[in-house]
């Protein structure tokens, strides 16, 4: 994890490094009781490179990937369009949400010849009780009265709808469950004799009449479900709708609140632009603080709550207090009619979720409903309210909603209001409630970078010794870079604890959830100290345990998707700190593609990818990613992450020899000072230390090598004092690779005391100076190239490379290229081209191989250098040419041909 070396004169050691105290060897290197590995006595000549970590499963991050999500906004429309143009069955049954179905059908019709007849038939109570009532629009075109018998009706309409040699008319049927059976029979027979292309659309397959369902089973009608969009597909759709780059943070929030619905996502994006929730900064659309806007398609106002019938009002109050509820449960308790009425008026929404159909009101509506409960009504509901909400759940839910949409400041103010009201009417009289509220407020303050305030909230809580708050305090200490305090906090939490938070309504925490969070925080602390092997063991263990829960089908009961993304963020920090670049990139891509709905996690993953690109030599790509992340972080997000984004930008700009000659450090300081959210003093926790390294590297390229070395060694000394031994190692290693070879003894000590993937190569590098062995230098550079750090080999004028023979330089370049191919850039197939690829273009073959290799659309776009929308377009062409339905069938096709190729 070091930059490309550049020529730099050596600096006298005595000017930059103070002599260590004589009793330094007696001082413990590990913070507190941390188990670590001290290898300072190991010879550099026997050091070995630590291999890359085995692939992680990560299925727990995005469970249920069973094809019930659309990878492209046009997927259903393209499938229906093929049917309408005669390339499929004689019709289709389209299911899904109403707005999405309509958009799909209209999009497919746009590709049909304008001369083709299109008829729209609608079911209704009248059509359900009147023979052929739904066919009125067709029957009105006949020159004579239609016969009463079904076969006569079919014959008469067949002649009317299509003459020999012409395309069949398109008949679109809605609310088919409210159409009389004889009409359904006539339509089914017309479809079978190819007189019409029948398109039936409804919410669920169970609403399809028996005759039409039979045609679907026979293959005469194709079933097309307009599934919700994946987060990646939603991101692409938003960029198309808004006409520009959209931050991942913004697209995740809008995807979550639209439940992946194409229709609602488009409408919500437009509403956010009008309200100012979406703003354009530096050519990127970002999400600003504040509540999401009310939908412009909303119906009755909740201000008239008191005028609603009693049961309608009771249903709204339950949804406001309890949050989303299953439609099946509400129907079972007798609220079917009220659900229909309130949904028709636009007061509540019914959405399709992976767990079923849910009834809900938005957080804005919930606040209005709760505020509209009059005192008399409140007293009347007092027992019910207390049972449903013991004084804190509604506040906690509202605060979490605000944090999830980038309005952490609003959540903090909400907690302040609760505190002021507690004197007259305590809202959280239970210990459980106090723990919930303290935890949530601390989380909200940490999101805005107020670590002092977050810790103060925990200290004020009478239950600060509880497991939940103990883990939260440890996480804050890690964010500060105070590993000793973090590990001390974690030591007080029993490994098999089962806290008192499993009460009814307290589903925000489970014993396992706290357990997983505690272990992920411990892994972060160990990775930044001197036990990277132990940290990676914890990461592997977490992945296996969560995968086991996912296999059992209880992962959502153990840990919510949102909180799984929090654990994944910690694992991401560990992998990056331990130099596991390939595994780190894979996890970051999984977070970006996951359906967890955590916008802070995707923003962090985007930033980590930018850092990886910068460290491995892809500076243009890194600068673009960092600029997009910085645009969002300037509005909302952790200030410490903003510092890293700005540091990456400064580092990448310095490499391009900016003619303005601006000092990178001044660029960062000016940006930070001009931003009210930026932290006054940078923290080395999480990736704050990496921001310092990027800034030091750019200082050397723009200002002076002396200033760079001084800044790097100041970071190393500060890290050593705080017990951040991995950070000390990276700082010393980078200074050494810039030509400060007099640091060889310190590099050998720090490399031997850590177990990152580059510790072994750095130990060899130090040995090449201490033992004056050029072969050790070549072996160390070869290991760095194999680890994916091609940037080390970019400039052969480096002091470390100037004496290497040209043959060794060529071999290093070949090793680096092979590492790049292992990282996902290889698209050629060394075993030749299988038969099923014959009809594909070169680009389609490339994308097919990447799909078979398990890459997501976002990963394919990054590897191939094209947009996600272009990838989706190529995939549609691939599936059409090969007559496949999706990724799973393409993978099976490739696997089926693999044995034949191996045999040949």
TrEMBL record:
Keyword Protein transport assigned to the entry: answer is no
**Segments of skewed composition (Pro residues):** 1-10
Enumerate the InterPro entries for this protein.
Answer: Sig_transdc_resp-reg_C-effctor (IPR016032), Tscrpt_reg_LuxR_C (IPR000792), WH-like_DNA-bd_sf (IPR036388)
Extract the ranges annotated as region (Disordered). Answer: 1-40
Q: What span is annotated as the signal peptide, if there is one?
A: none
Q: Which Gene3D superfamilies does the UniProt entry name for this protein?
A: Winged helix-like DNA-binding domain superfamily/Winged helix DNA-binding domain (1.10.10.10)
- Protein biosynthesis found in the keyword field: no
Q: Which UniProt keywords apply?
A: DNA-binding, Transcription, Transcription regulation
Q: Residue limits of the HTH luxR-type domain?
A: 833-898
Record PANTHER family: DNA-BINDING TRANSCRIPTIONAL ACTIVATOR DEVR_DOSR
Q: What is the protein name for this chain?
A: HTH luxR-type domain-containing protein
- Natural source organism: Citricoccus zhacaiensis
Q: What is the lineage of its organism?
A: Bacteria, Bacillati, Actinomycetota, Actinomycetes, Micrococcales
């Amino acid at each position: 994890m070091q930059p490309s070396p550049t020529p730099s004169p050596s600096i006298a050691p005595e000017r930059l490094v103070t002599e260590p105290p004589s009793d330094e060897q007696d001082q413990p290197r590990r913070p507190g009781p941390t188990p670590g590995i001290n290898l300072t006595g190991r010879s550099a000549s026997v050091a070995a490179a630590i291999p890359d970590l085995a692939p992680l499963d990560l299925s727990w991050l995005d469970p249920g990937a069973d094809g019930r999500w659309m990878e492209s906004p046009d997927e259903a429309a393209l499938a229906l369009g093929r049917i309408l143009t005669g390339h499929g069955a004689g019709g289709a049954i389209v299911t899904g949400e109403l707005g999405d179905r309509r958009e799909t059908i209209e999009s497919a019709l746009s590709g049909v010849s304008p001369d083709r007849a299109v008829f729209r038939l609608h079911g209704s109570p009248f059509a359900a009780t009147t023979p052929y009532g739904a066919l009125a629009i067709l029957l009105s075109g006949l020159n004579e009265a239609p016969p009463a018998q079904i076969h006569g009706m079919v014959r008469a309409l067949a002649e009317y709808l299509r003459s020999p040699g012409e395309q069949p008319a398109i008949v679109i049927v809605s609310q088919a469950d409210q159409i009389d059976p004889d009409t359904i029979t006539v339509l089914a027979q017309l479809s079978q004799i190819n007189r019409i292309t029948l398109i039936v659309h409804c919410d669920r397959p169970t609403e399809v009449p028996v005759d039409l369902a039979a045609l679907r089973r026979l293959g005469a009608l194709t079933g097309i479900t307009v599934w919700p969009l994946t987060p990646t597909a939603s991101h692409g759709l938003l960029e198309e709708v808004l006409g520009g780059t959209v931050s991942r943070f913004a697209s995740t929030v809008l995807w979550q609140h639209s439940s992946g619905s194409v229709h609602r996502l488009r409408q919500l994006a437009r509403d956010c632009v009008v309200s100012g929730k979406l703003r354009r900064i530096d050519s990127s659309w970002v999400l600003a603080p504040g509540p999401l806007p009310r939908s412009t398609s909303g119906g009755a106002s909740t201000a008239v709550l008191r005028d609603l019938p009693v049961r309608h009002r009771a249903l709204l109050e339950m949804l406001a207090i309890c949050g989303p509820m299953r439609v099946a449960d509400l129907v079972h308790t007798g609220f079917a009619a009220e659900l229909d009425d309130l949904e028709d008026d636009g007061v509540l929404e019914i959405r399709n979720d992976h767990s079923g159909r849910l009834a809900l009101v938005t957080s804005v509506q919930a606040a209005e409903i709760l505020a509209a409960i009059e005192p008399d009504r409140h007293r009347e509901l007092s027992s019910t309210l207390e049972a449903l909400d013991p004084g804190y759940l509604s506040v906690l839910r509202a605060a979490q909603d605000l944090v999830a949409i980038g309005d952490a400041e609003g959540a903090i103010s909400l907690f302040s209001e609760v505190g002021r009201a507690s004197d007259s009417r305590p809202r959280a009289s239970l210990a459980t409630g106090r723990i919930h509220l303290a935890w949530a407020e601390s989380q909200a303050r940490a999101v805005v970078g107020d670590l002092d305030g977050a810790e103060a909230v925990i200290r004020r809580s009478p239950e600060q010794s509880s497991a939940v708050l103990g883990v939260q305090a440890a996480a804050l200490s890690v964010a500060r870079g105070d590993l000793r305090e973090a590990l001390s906090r974690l030591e007080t939490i029993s490994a098999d604890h089962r806290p008192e938070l499993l009460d009814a309504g307290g589903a925000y925490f489970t014993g396992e959830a706290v357990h997983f969070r505690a272990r992920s925080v411990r892994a972060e602390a160990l990775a930044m100290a001197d036990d990277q092997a132990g940290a990676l063991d914890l990461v592997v263990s977490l992945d296996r345990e969560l995968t086991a829960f996912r296999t059992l089908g209880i992962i959502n009961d153990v840990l919510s998707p949102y909180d799984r993304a929090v654990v994944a963020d910690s694992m991401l920090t560990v992998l990056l700190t331990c130099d596991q670049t390939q595994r780190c990139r894979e996890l970051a891509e999984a977070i970006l593609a996951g359906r967890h709905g955590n916008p802070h996690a995707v923003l962090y993953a985007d930033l980590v990818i930018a850092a990886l690109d910068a460290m491995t030599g892809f500076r243009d790509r890194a600068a673009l990613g960092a600029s997009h992340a910085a645009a969002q972080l300037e509005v909302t997000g952790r200030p410490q992450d903003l510092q890293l984004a700005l540091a990456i930008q400064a580092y990448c700009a310095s490499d391009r020899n900016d003619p303005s000659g601006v000092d990178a450090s001044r660029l960062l300081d000016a940006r930070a000072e001009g931003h009210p959210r930026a932290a006054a003093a940078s923290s080395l926790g999480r990736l704050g230390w990496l921001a310092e390294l990027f800034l030091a590297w750019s200082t050397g390229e723009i200002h002076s090598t002396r200033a760079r070395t001084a800044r790097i060694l100041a970071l190393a000394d500060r890290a050593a004092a705080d017990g951040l031994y991995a950070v000390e190692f990276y700082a010393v290693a980078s200074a050494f690779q810039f030509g400060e070879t007099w640091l060889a003894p310190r590099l050998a000590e720090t490399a031997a005391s850590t177990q990152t993937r580059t510790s072994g190569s750095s130990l060899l590098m130090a040995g090449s100076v201490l033992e004056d062995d050029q072969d050790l230098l070549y072996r160390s550079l070869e290991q760095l190239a194999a680890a994916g750090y091609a940037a080390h080999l970019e400039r052969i004028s480096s002091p470390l490379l100037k004496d290497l023979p040209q043959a060794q330089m060529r071999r290093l370049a070949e090793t680096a290229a092979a590492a790049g191919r292992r990282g996902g850039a290889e698209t050629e197939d060394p075993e030749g081209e299988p038969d099923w690829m014959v009809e594909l273009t070169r680009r389609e073959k490339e994308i097919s191989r990447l799909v078979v290799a398990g890459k997501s659309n976002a990963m394919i776009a990054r590897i191939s250098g094209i947009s996600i929308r272009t990838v989706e377009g190529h995939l549609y062409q691939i599936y059409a040419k090969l007559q496949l339905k999706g990724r799973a069938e393409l993978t099976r096709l490739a696997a089926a041909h693999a044995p034949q190729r191996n045999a040949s």
